[in-house]
Amino acid sequence: MFSHTNPLHQDVFQSVARFEGEVVAMTAALFGSKDKSSGGQICGNMTSGGTESILLAVKTSRDYMRMKKGITRPEMIIAESAHSAYDKAAQYFNIIVRRVPVDEEYKADVRKTKHCINKNTIMIIGSAPGFPHGVIDPIEALGALASSYDICFHVDLCLGGFVLPFARKLGYPIPPFDFSVKGVTSMSADVHKYGLGPKGTSVVLYRNHEIRKNQFVAVTEWTGGLYVSPTIAGSRPGGLIAGAWAAMMSLGEEGYLDNTKQIMEVSKRIQKGIQDIPELHIIGKPDMTVIAFGSNVVDIFEVNDIMSSKGWHLNALQKPNSLHICVTLQHVPAADNFLQDLKESVDTGESESRTDQWRACTNIWCCREDARQGSGAGLVSRVHGWKLLGHGLVT
Ligand SMILES: *Cc1c(COP(=O)(O)O)cnc(C)c1O
């Protein structure tokens, strides 16, 4: 019904403008906007996804810091576990990125981050949780650091935004992650992940309008008339905004609480099951529903291939080589099958790995061929020198 609407023309499509406002307000309310400590001025926009939310938060922080502190050669500091969307933002917006290794718990290292701050630093980032290992960074400590240097601090809730507030309500031990934390200037949360909205929906939020106004583009001299656009896209899909609103309204707090309870419980079960496989170990201490695991005994990417042949699609990670599963409602009835298949794959991988040492090198070429055919994602499994691939993936 809303598929031909466009919030660029707010006056024409008033209900879509209202849907966007309500999605933003409902999301903000999950992250402490009603709390006194938030300052009561949280504002934001809907975007096409986590990447656009992050691009906007970075661009806004850059321009806010230029306005406020006169920084013209911007740098940002991110943990190695932060999403690659920050590299994308840095490449698009001419910002130097300093990537800092994570600490022994796979969290952003506050001390090392502090070391990297200089007069050109515009922002730091914390993920709640990070995509690779599902571990929440020390948001309070990073917030204190950011506010002591008067720089921006973005909290990446793309993955955790529609789980953590509910997990906390259910009694899980979730450390502070929202606008109640001093120093947080912006946040991103994906409605199209655990918010269960249609693909192409996310929210970017700011502490106040003073910061957010740096996100907008206003052109006054165009022959096409006065043009004001809040996000990267000009025309925007009203249908997706309506879809996100419908998803949130139909689930409601009860729906999200119920979903979160199920996926948190099954995540704990899967975690326990992985721990019971002696060849595997969990990476870090998962705070939510992403569980990363590796092995000192079997080639974990070989295990991934065998799991693929059984119909499972796991993400391959590096530094250290590992896999992760992002647990969703689909896994609730399938957890036992998953663990059974994983155990079998480890056993098979263990016996096979003794015989085929030569494979790793030939696979680089398989990957390059795959990449040319456009299936860039998820093909990296067995290649050990990923750096070599960077070039091949974009040619
Ligand atoms: C998914 C994700 C992103 C990027 O979001 P897209 O919707 O894929 O653009 C950024 N950060 C984290 C932590 C994520 O999980």
From TrEMBL:
One of its GO terms (cellular component) is endoplasmic reticulum membrane. This is Sphingosine-1-phosphate lyase. Signal peptide: none annotated. Its cofactor is pyridoxal 5'-phosphate. It comes from Acorus gramineus (Dwarf sweet flag). Its EC number is 4.1.2.27. It is found in: Endoplasmic reticulum membrane. Pathway: Sphingolipid metabolism; Lipid metabolism; sphingolipid metabolism. Its main location: endoplasmic reticulum. Pfam families: Pyridoxal_deC. GO terms for biological process: carboxylic acid metabolic process; sphingolipid catabolic process. Belongs to the group II decarboxylase family. Sphingosine-1-phosphate lyase subfamily. Keywords: Endoplasmic reticulum, Lipid metabolism, Lyase, Membrane, Pyridoxal phosphate, Sphingolipid metabolism, Transmembrane, Transmembrane helix. It is a single-pass membrane protein. One of its GO terms (molecular function) is pyridoxal phosphate binding. The keyword Metal-binding does not apply. The modification N6-(pyridoxal phosphate)lysine is found at K193.
